Structures are given as C-alpha cells and as structure tokens.
Amino acid sequence: MIRTMWDKILALFGKKKVDNDRQQEENEKFVTHYEDTKDINFTAIFANKLANYVVSDSNIDVTGDNQRSVILQDVLKKLKKKLKKIVSREIGTGGVLVVPYVANNKINFNVITQNRLNINKKIGEDIIDCTILAEHIVRDQKNYYRWADYTLENGNLYIKYRATVESSPISMETVIEWANIKDIAITNVERMPFMYIKSPVDNRQENDDYGVPITYGCEKQISKIMHTLNQIEREYDLKEVFVGANESMFKGPGALPSNGIYKKINSDETDFWEVFDPAFRDTPLFNKLMNECSMLEKQIGTSEGILTKAETKNATATEIKKILKDTFDICDDIRDGLEDGLKDFLYACDVLANYYNLSPQGEYELSTDWSYSLLEDSQQEFNQLLQGEARGVIKKAEIRQYLKPHENLKEAQAVIDEIKKENPSTKDLLGG
Question: Is this prediction's pTM over 0.85?
C-alpha cells in the first residue's frame, strides 16, 4: 500500500521520486514476511536470537553531570526497554529508524521500519534529504497518515509535515493529535535528527542505501527445511497404528470401522486380529532436517547453535570461542552499527533539547559496555571486573551495574554511597 503512494506524497513536498519501485517493493516484502505469524518464521527466529546476544547483559549509558545529561539518560532508559525489539526488527526487516520528537516538554520517540523511509539524496553515507511516514492512524475505517520531510542544507535542517487520508492531502488540523505540529527549521545541525540502523547483511548489489534481512537470499534453503518438516508431520500421521478385526466384531452387516480399527476380509477364527504398525523413519528424517538447518546457518554466516545444537560439552574456553566465533562476529557488526545509531539518536535528542529549550546545554557522552557472555563464562567475566577495579582501571559503580544492569552509572554510584552511609563497617570494602 505505502509503495504505491510515494509519488503523490513526494509531490506534496515538491520532490520527485528517485527510488525504483523494485526497491520499495522489496522493503515492503521484508517487513510483511518478518511480521508473518501464520507459520514457522525462520527470519524472526534468527533475528530474535541474535538480538538477545547483542543486547542482553550489556550496559549502555549516558555519562555527564548536568541537566542535559539527565534528560538524555531518561530518554535512553526508555529506549533500552525497547532495544531488543528494535534490534530484532533491524535484523529481521533490513533496517529500522528511531525518530525522537518533543511533546509536553519531554522527548519521546517513534520506531519506524525502513519500508516507511524514502531516501531522496545522500552524500557518501550521509542522508541529507529523505521523507518518512511518521505516523498512521485508523479512524472511522479510514487510514490517516502523517508524513515528515527532512532536508539538510549548509548546516540548516528543515522539517516539513503533511497529512493525507489514504493518498489524498488533508489539513494537519483534520487529525486532532496533529493539529499543533508545525514545520520547523533548526540551524547548526550536522546530521539527520534520527537513528537509522541497518542489518550488516550484504545485499549483493552496488547500491546499499537500504538494509536486507538476515535471511536474505536463503529462500531456497528455507523452502527445503519447510518441506522436510512437512515430511516429518506426514510421517507421524501415516504412522498411526491400525488394528484389524474379524467382521464378527462389528455390529450389523453394513457397519464401518472407525478410530483406527478396520474390518478384515477373508479372516477365520485362527486369524482373528491383525495389527498394522509401520516403522517410523525418524532417524533419517531428523538427520536430513538437522543437515538442512546446519546449511541455513552456514548460508547466513552464523555458528551452530541457532537452529542446531552447538557441540560445546567438555570444550575448553578457547574451543568455545572458535565454535561460536561466526555468531559473535555477526553480533559484533550489529553492535558497531547500533553504537553509531545510538550516538545519532542522542545527538538528535540534544538538537531537539536545544531547539525547545528543555534544559541548558551541557556535555554528555555515550558509554557502552557490551557483554561477552556468548563467549565467556559469567563468573569469569565478573572476576575480570573485580580485578579491574582492584587495579584501579574501572569504578565500583561499573561492578554494581554489571549486577544491576537496569541502573545507569550515576544510579549505581548513588546506591554505593547510600550503602556506605548506612553500613560504615563496609567502607573499607567499598573504598571508603
């Protein structure tokens, strides 16, 4: 639906469509496939599993000692609650945007899949002109859309808003929630005021403005797995045991058998019962399934352990790292893109905080401590933190944050200070 509207929407902003229809059609297909819940969804399986590896047990924070850093800490805390879903959608659909906005003097954000993004112009890797479907409301069985157009010229950012019912233009005041949204212009801006993260998968094309899902190009292998699963299901159905009985066991000459019992023909008193119990070919079928699942993991580029079982029993730490290295390398690529995206997100929030005068300007910094639990034992990682603190290279608050990942560094330090006051005897242990 969205794909067919872009020409008219861009015309509202005085722009011409530059993306080809095939690209927009693919972006729509990626999202539709990822959101499909009617059958086994291997794209969602890989995306969710990798998102768990990327986000779980990792610490992401904003450091700074001023009102601006407090505002950014608050909005980042909201973002972290949805970060696993955001990363999963990035991996599963090819790309996702997180667009901050200000309402009631607070910074909020919308999560938008890349099928709602039209890139109009880039310089190198930087987007300098794009149009986004920012919001969709269904009311009285009609579809209302709010569109946002971003143009960055010579350090000046221009954001224009338009509304449509289906593809027909309407006034922004038509939808009460959008009545107070006005076009804005912001000076001294370096980049677009949103976060756009893309899956690290190669789209195998010269133009890589948009990302592709983790299972891109694996459709044939997934089809083979689905066929084998259907074979196994059919084998179970055919495996149902039937018991044959002499016709004298059935009431009436015209009675028909049911519930796994059939009537024998030409049987006598010495051949009263017969059991039909065919052997089930479980071993060859499941071997076939596991081989196909292993091939899908190889095609995607992960290690064993997503669909198959990783053989890590009795393996040393070095051997485990070798076994799981491919999966970790993909997670590392996702984290690199995510870290850059988080910097863009905080920058966008900072720009909006300046424009709406939410607080005095202040210095801040993104702090990331990615978990290595995929490769390392949690006890080993904790011991490394203790050693690091003993050698004076990390803070005690970082150790507490490892134990309480929902706390940021400032909150962790505040609890440590509180413990010191309530339990003076612990001061030596806590560095008092």
Answer: no
Calculated CA dihedral for residues 152, 154, 156, 161, nearest 10 degrees: -30
8 A C-beta contact, residue 186 and residue 343: no
Q: At what angle do helices 396-403 and 409-422 cross, to 10 degrees?
A: 100
Task: Name beta bridge partners: 323.
Answer: none
* Ordered alpha helix ranges (H), 307-357: 317-355
| Entry field: residues in the chain | 432
Q: Are strands 365-369 and 59-63 parallel, antiparallel or unpaired?
A: antiparallel
What is the residue type of 208?
D
Query: In sequence order, which residues have a C-beta less than 8 Å from that of residue 145 and are 6 or more positions away?
Result: 5, 133, 135, 136, 163, 164, 165, 166
**What would you report as the CA-atom Rg of the chain, rounded to the nearest whole angstrom?**
29
The pLDDT profile of the chain, 432 residues, written as one tens digit per residue, is: 677 788 889 999 998 876 667 888 999 999 999 999 999 999 999 999 999 999 988 899 999 999 999 999 999 999 999 999 999 999 999 999 999 999 889 999 999 999 999 999 999 999 999 999 999 999 989 999 999 999 999 999 999 999 999 889 999 999 999 998 999 999 999 999 999 999 999 999 888 899 999 999 999 999 999 999 998 888 777 666 555 555 555 555 555 555 555 545 555 555 555 555 556 677 888 999 999 999 999 999 999 999 998 876 666 667 777 888 999 999 999 999 999 999 999 999 999 999 999 999 999 999 998 987 776 656 666 677 788 878 888 888 888 877 776 677 778 888 888 888 877 665 555 554
Q: Pick the closest to residue 330 from 207, 221, 217, 214 (CA basis).
A: 214
In angstroms, the Cα distances linking 13 to 71, 121, 143, 255 are 33, 14, 20, 76
Work out the end-to-end distance of the chain between its first and last CA atoms, rounded to an integer number of angstroms: 63
Is residue 172 within 8 A of residue 161, CB to CB? The reply is: yes
CB burial of 245-274 (b: ≥16 within 10 Å; e: otherwise) equals: beeeebeeeeeebeeeeeebeebeeeeeee
Q: What is the DSSP secondary structure assignment for residue 125, as one 8-state letter?
A: T
